[in-house]
Amino acid sequence: MPSAADWRAMMDGMRSLQTSVSEMRVAQDRGLQEMREAHETALGEFRDFRLAQERATQDMQAELETQRLDIDEMRDWLRPHYGPQDGAG
Hints:
- The protein is an all-alpha fold.
- The protein is built from one helix and no strands.
């Protein structure tokens, strides 16, 4: 049968173990929260990037359409002066 000192030592060990487990849980919870926050930040940055990319694509498409219209207008203006251009030189 364990002595009273052995029981106290065992109980102290159990309390120490419980404290360590509690500290590990707190650290784990903190780490998980930091990971969630980092994930949310990255997700927000990715959404912002995608929106910026979509806007840039739309701007480029609008610019290309404007240039196409300018070319068509210039071709229409040149046609009566120089005739159709079929590439036959």
